[in-house]
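In this notebook, the sequence line spells out the residues, with the fold written below as integer tokens. This is how one looks.
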Amino acid sequence: MTYQPTPENGQEWGQTVTLAHLSAIIRLASDAIISVDANQRLILFDKGAEQTFGYSAGEALGQPLDILLPPHLAGQFIYHIKRALQTGEAQIYKYPLTVGGTIRYFEARMVVSGPDEVLTIVCDISEQARLEQMKSDFINRAAHELRTPLTTAILMANLIQEGGTEEELRRYWGILNTELERQRNLVEELLKMGHLEGDAFLFSIAPLDLTATLEEALKAITPLANAKLLELSVGITPQLPLVNGDKSSLQQVFVNLLSNAIKFTPPGGAIRLLAFGETGGVVVQVHDTGIGIPPEDLPHLFSRFFRASNATRNEIPGSGVGLYTIKAIVEKLGGRVQVESRLHQGTTFEVWLPAAVH
């Protein structure tokens, strides 16, 4: 029945608009919305539920709730529904479910919506769960990477205090300096990530000769490449266009990219740095002949805390924030960064920066 509101019945008018709004929300919601009665039979099954559970409304309505889920999950659902009816309090239940051969994570929020009736909204929280797992992994990695050099630094300090030959003391001081530098770099990465996320990071942007910045980055990483017997080649086009950039931040970008290339390339491999002008800007490419990146990892490579699966498997050290920071810096400068990789054959990172406006 269609209700025709009149000025005399404002209360009914408000009820009609509210119901219309609720109906529109239900139709537009991407989450699954279902409702069950006291017998756990489905009495509401929206479009989102059809996509989530793979049943049409015609197939699901009137059926018991346990048709939607494996028995152990259905039992938990029913338990929380009964709790909602008994206590009148909202219930939240999180669970994993294998969908199309992939484990996904869902959250069900249940609330009493009428006499002997419970409304449930089911949200896919897989991305949130993935990020939480990456955060947890990152904390463990960061703690390990801080603890290891700290333990070594303390040992070296004790040995220096005990004394030794001039050669021994020189070696102890060198190790101590290296380990403290490792800790400083990790802390700086974390601080820079925090500043970038909070928009507290300040750039000193000015027309910049990228050639000089690249040469300084190369000078910083050349000893690392030599130590691994890597071939390091450079091709920088003369008189590159100036770019609008922040010297310190861009130097960090290219030192990190070159350091990563060295880290993931076995001894005897090759690293190549190219820089050339392109319409409207400058392109810098860092090629390596390293272990490559699994195809399934590429979409997540610039995410916070993410590390490629083969890097973790091979126990190659890293914090999981370097590439995230690189992307954030480049994009704040109006540029872009992209990657191409073939497993066991190598990786190419490409950074494009806009030319300075004269």
